Amino acid sequence: MRFLSIFHRLAGALCTLMIVVLVSLPAVAEDLPVSVLKITGHDGKLHDFKVEVAASAQTRATGLMNRTSLAEGKGMIFIFPQPKTVMMWMKDTLIPLDMFFIDSEGKIFNIAENAKPMDETIIPSRGLAAYVLELAGGEAQRLKLSPGDKVSGASLAFKAKN
């Protein structure tokens, strides 16, 4: 009997711990594929990023909303069914972001740096974007990334849904 009492207490503690861990994880609409993306800067330096791939209408709509942090070298790539003028915003996004607007050839043509958290102001692509890459605010400046830099990697081969 004593063994069962100890077992029940341990099982209860483990369940509580699992709930605490799950509640503290970032909210994601679904398990997103993760891929390595590379940016070749105008200076020839290569920068690697591990990005979540948002290829469906639902994951593009949710993006990085409600995240409390975004580690250096991590981000999210939004993949669109066809190149278009994209309108982004920061509603329900808790952290500043750099947004890189990328054409179908993988060239960055516009960067919106340090987009303000929780701001509903529209951030336009200013051109036809096949992809939008979001990184932590300040990454563009820290890594000296600029329009004209080239993006490559397996994540650009994902097909958008809807």
From TrEMBL:
Instruction: Report if keyword Ribosomal protein is assigned.
Output: no
Under Gene3D superfamilies, the record lists: Protein of unknown function DUF192
Keyword Signal appears in the UniProt entry: yes
The record's InterPro entries line, in alphabetical order, gives:
DUF192 (IPR003795), Saro_0823-like_sf (IPR038695)
- The signal sequence is 1-29
Name the keywords, alphabetized.
Signal
Name it.
Uncharacterized membrane protein (UPF0127 family)
